[in-house]
Fold:
Amino acid sequence: MENPFLKEYKSDKDDKQLVFEAQSGDKKSLEALILRHQPYIYNIAWKFVRNGKDAEDITQEAIIKVITQLVKFENRSSFRTWAYRIVANHFLMSKRKKGETQVDNFETMAQNLANTPDNVLTEFEQEEQKHLIKEMNYMCMTGMLLCLNRDQRMVFILGETFNADHTIGSQILGISKDNFRKKLSRARNDLYNFMNNKCGLVNKSNPCRCHKKVKFVVDNKIIDSKNLLFNREDFASFRQFIRKDADALMSIIDQKYAELFHELPYKEHFDKKTFMEDIVNDDHIRNIMKLN
Structure:
């Protein structure tokens, strides 16, 4: 599986063929189209709202919008650009989720980190609890994304995490290339400035270290050591789903900072089949698409 904005399908039917067949009422082609793009859409949603269940909900809502508008698609752009424009717009306009309101600015996050007691671990304890430390690391970084406003967050997820260039990013969001670059630059700078001033992963002179916070967050059940949300063996990382030789859109950001966000988890395994069947077997969808 590769970056959805760069992938060229050679052995399988391409999007254009699947769309044509789906518009003609072919249920299997519609299913194939959904299954191809659903994981990417879900992972954009997961980074956008942080909570897995909320991500599933807005993913399903967005996919239903794509399907119900598929009859209007006229191949004037790539299906991917057209579909992800609908998806991004739905995410931006959807009702704010609970997780988004818990940490919604950098000042609040800085205060929360400052109020979390430190418990220094020995090197042996750090090695022993490395999976919990990594969970804390991922939880903190996804929290940083929520400190961006929704517009900035979407631009950052598309441009930094998925490596969508300014041409694709501007098409998806319906803005100019220059505006996309500016928005991405501001989002990157806001995140970088916070991390450079607070995060020990970026700047070792900073006092905040994930391993110092682990005991408190585990004891207070902020992290469930038996049910990790981010750091699991069955998760890949975004690094595996972006073009390795992608051109950097900005050169002013420290490489370590960019690498950290490329290592955020990518959730491959969720109940895609049931998720998809709930949509294509819906009577309203079947009637609109005249599915065979």
